[in-house]
């Protein structure tokens, strides 16, 4: 029986993949498998992964013939996974030695559906600890009950899929797969669905994932049209939350978060290519018109003046029928 399946997508990360794979070797166990998904890399990443299948115990190498994006690559790994528990890592990040054994022990001791962990963010030589925005540690709770309040950062705002471990019953229930084709913000509908539909979770103060920021090939650093997939992602969050039995309570959080993300992108619009910047404005204006308008009014009233003014101005922008759809 495989105890833990680790799903690791890779795309054009030849500079970082060796560090990632070394850290996986320092976490290997006879009952762990490492599913290495190459998302049609065009650099030396495939050769590095092919060597890893010979050197890394439990390694399984899968390759996409066309690039599908992070969500699709993770789904490929999920479909191949055999473990009692599942977790993720990105191909340019790394782990502390023995971290996965500690992670498995944590979820087995707590007996819950999923566990969320803290992580270390690494930008150049700087190291910063980022905590799950949930104060109670090592206490099993209903994840639905920690989505709110709307005006504070909560566990659904800490969307990193690799910051945790998940019981196989979640995969069997269809809760671990991502929306195919999303190029960014793929973890937002995913984390909301987990918190609405799973039965139990806990947060633990376990550090072991080192999240590399500032990677030139990362979509967070590239101002091209793929960044605009955040709109598809948050449309999905709002639509699914609107259909929830507690929609009246949860929608203000979903809409307010969506507005904050739109404002964030507009506030750094200069990093986008000019045609993409124009598309960002038109698509964001259309998104505001699709939101439940009464909930949107309340969300804007609760935001600071700068963000609210920016969004109200955008809300008045005319939208073509094609963009609105």
General description of the model:
- The structure is a single chain.
- Helix content is 42%, strand content 16%.
- It is built from twelve helices and eleven strands.
- The strands form two sheets. A seven-stranded mixed β-sheet has the order 3-2-1-4-9-6-10, with helices on both faces. Strands 5-11-7-8 form a four-stranded mixed β-sheet.
Can you give the mean pLDDT?
94
> Could you say which structural class the secondary elements and strand pairing correspond to?
alpha/beta
Characterize the largest beta sheet: strand count, sense, and whether it forms a barrel.
Answer: 7 strands, mixed
User: Which runs of at least 5 residues are low in confidence (pLDDT < 50)?
Assistant: none
User: Which outline best applies?
Assistant: globular
Helix and strand succession? EHEHEHEEHEEEEHHEEHHHHHH
Number of helices: 12
**For the CA atoms, what is the radius of gyration?**
20 Å
| Widest beta sheet: strand line-up | 3-2-1-4-9-6-10
* Total DSSP E strands: 11
What proportion of the residues form beta strands (DSSP E)? 15-25%
Portion of residues in helices? 40-55%
Beginning-to-end CA distance, first to last residue = 48 Å
Keywords summarizing the entry:
325 residues; alpha/beta; seven-stranded mixed sheet; four-stranded mixed sheet; 12 helices; 11 strands; 42% helix; 16% strand; globular
């Amino acid at each position: 029986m495989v105890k833990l399946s680790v799903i690791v997508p890779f795309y054009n990360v030849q500079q970082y993949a060796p560090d990632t794979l070394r850290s996986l070797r320092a976490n290997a166990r006879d009952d762990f498998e490492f599913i290495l998904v190459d998302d049609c890399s065009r650099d030396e990443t495939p050769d590095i992964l092919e060597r890893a299948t010979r050197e890394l115990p439990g390694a399984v190498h899968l390759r996409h013939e066309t690039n599908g994006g992070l969500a699709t690559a993770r789904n490929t790994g999920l479909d191949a996974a055999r473990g009692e528990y599942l977790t993720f890592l990105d191909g340019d990040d790394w782990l502390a030695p023995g971290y996965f054994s500690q992670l498995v022990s944590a979820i087995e001791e707590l007996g819950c559906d999923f566990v969320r962990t803290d992580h270390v963010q690494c930008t150049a030589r700087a190291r910063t600890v980022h905590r799950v925005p949930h104060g109670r540690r090592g206490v099993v709770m209903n994840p639905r009950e920690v989505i709110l309040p709307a005006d504070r950062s909560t566990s659904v705002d800490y969307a990193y899929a690799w910051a945790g471990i998940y019981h196989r019953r979640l995969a069997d229930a269809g809760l671990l797969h991502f929306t195919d084709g999303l190029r960014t913000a793929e973890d937002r509908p995913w984390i909301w669905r987990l918190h609405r539909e799973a039965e139990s979770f806990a947060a633990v103060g376990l550090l072991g994932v080192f999240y590399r920021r500032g990677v030139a090939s990362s979509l967070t650093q590239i101002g091209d049209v793929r960044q605009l997939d955040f709109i598809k992602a948050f449309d999905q969050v709002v639509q699914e939350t609107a259909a929830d039995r507690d929609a009246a309570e949860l929608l203000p959080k979903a809409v307010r978060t969506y507005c904050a993300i739109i404002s964030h992108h507009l506030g750094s619009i200069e990093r986008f290519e000019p045609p993409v910047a124009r598309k960002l404005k038109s698509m964001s204006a259309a998104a505001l018109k699709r939101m439940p308008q009464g909930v949107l009014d309340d969300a804007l009233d609760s935001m600071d003046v700068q963000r609210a003014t920016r969004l109200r101005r955008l809300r008045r922008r005319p939208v073509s029928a094609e963009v609105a759809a």
